[in-house]
Design a protein that fits this description.
Layout (H helix, E strand, L loop, with lengths): L1 H7 L4 H17 L4 H24 L3 H27 L2 E7 L5 E7 L12 H27 L3 H26 L5 H18 L8
Helix pairs in contact: 3-4, 3-5, 4-6, 5-6
Length: 207
């Protein structure tokens, strides 16, 4: 019958393709660098926890300050030199030439010949979530310390904003490209969304 002939013509390639897609998705969702992912969040989250619980743990301001600064310093070094390279394939640093001029240098991992990257989507989410959220928390701490007149904590909080903000700025520049203006990119994005809304009223598409 026609139904039997059409079923006999079905190839098994689709099944293998489905298996390949399934394995590809599992690889994307798998955390390939669990140690790097752990320490990407450990130092910065620990610094925030120590800051919040410092007065409950000890009455020594110096001990708390030294502990927080050490955690922030370890976080800055680990994120800048290790976790960014392993988890998202990005790296940045600042170099001073012989004339005393400071240069920002950005690097991104090249895509392999098969068109795949060694980083996974799960690691990328962990990296960017920790990279963006923690500096915002330190900014909130800065305003809180300022308005509550906790002057002695301002130096610690400002250091948290500066160190984690520097990593955030460096990796955003790596991500979008060192020659691109962030303001112009945001303007172009909003302009595209506005044009789409005008063309298709009631439908909002994300690029």
């Amino acid at each position: 019958s026609l139904l039997q002939d059409s079923s006999d013509d079905i190839e098994d390639v689709s099944l293998f393709d489905a298996d390949d897609d399934l394995s590809r998705r599992s690889k994307k969702s798998k955390i390939r660098h669990p140690v790097a992912s752990f320490f990407h969040l450990f130092f910065r989250v620990s610094a925030i926890v120590v800051y919040l619980l410092c007065e409950l743990l000890t009455s020594s301001f110096i001990a708390c300050m030294v502990t927080i600064i050490l955690l922030l310093s370890c976080d800055f070094w680990a994120v800048k030199n290790v976790t960014g390279r392993l988890m998202v394939g990005l790296r940045w640093w600042n170099q001073v030439d012989d004339d005393g001029r400071s240069h920002w240098i950005f690097e991104a991992r090249k895509v392999s010949a098969q068109g795949s990257k060694t980083s996974s989507e799960a690691e990328s989410r962990i990296f960017w979530l920790g990279l963006i959220t923690c500096p915002m928390i330190w900014v909130i701490f800065a305003f809180s310390a300022l308005f509550s007149f906790k002057v002695k904590w301002l130096a610690v909080v400002v250091m948290g904003v500066v160190l984690q903000g520097a990593n955030l700025y460096g990796y955003i520049r790596c991500k979008v490209g060192s020659r691109k203006n962030l303001t112009s990119m945001a303007t172009n994005y909003l302009g595209k969304q506005f044009l789409r809304q005008v063309r298709f009223p009631g439908v909002w598409k994300h690029s």
